[in-house]
Amino acid sequence: MATPSFKLPKSFLTQLGEFSHGYVLIVVNEQGEFESFMQADTPAVRLGIIRFAEIVAGKLNATLEEGLEKPEAQPEDPDDADPLDGISLG
């Protein structure tokens, strides 16, 4: 019998919204497809989340490109690697 596919519980997203002014959540589902969820209390918060995500994506891209130019020793377990390790957003 096939196991049912996992769906992010609506209650999780509701609670996330209740305890924050907004969020963006991107996940890769069991089929390898991207799913995104976003909630913002105001248009200003929505714009702030989008701008911050752009900053994070840019820094992550730069770090990953730098890693391709200067390959370092790979961790024994790729699951232990943190692609955001060393990225300062401050």
Task: Please sum up the structure shown.
The protein has about 90 residues and is an alpha+beta fold. About 40% of the residues lie in helices and about 15% in strands.
Radius of gyration: 17 Å
Rounded average pLDDT: 84
> Uncertain regions: pLDDT < 50 for 5+ in a row?
none
Task: Count helical runs.
Answer: 2
Sheet/helix structural class: alpha+beta
Pattern of helices and strands: HEEH
* Largest pleated sheet: 2 strands, antiparallel
Strand content: 15-25%
Strand order of the largest sheet: 1-2
What is the percent of helical residues?
A: 40-55%
What separation lies between the terminal Cα atoms?
A: 49 Å
Using the alpha-carbon principal axes, give the shape. flat
Please tally the β strands and state the result: 2
Features:
2 helices; 90 residues; alpha+beta; two-stranded antiparallel ribbon
Tell me about this structure.
With 90 residues, this protein is α+β, with helices and mostly antiparallel strands. The protein is 40% helix and 16% strand. It contains two helices and two strands. The protein has helices at 10-18, 43-69, and strands at residues 22-28, 34-40. Strands 1-2 form a two-stranded antiparallel sheet. A hairpin with a 5-residue loop joins strand 1 and strand 2 (34-40). The radius of gyration is 17 Å and the shape is flat. 0% of the residues are buried.
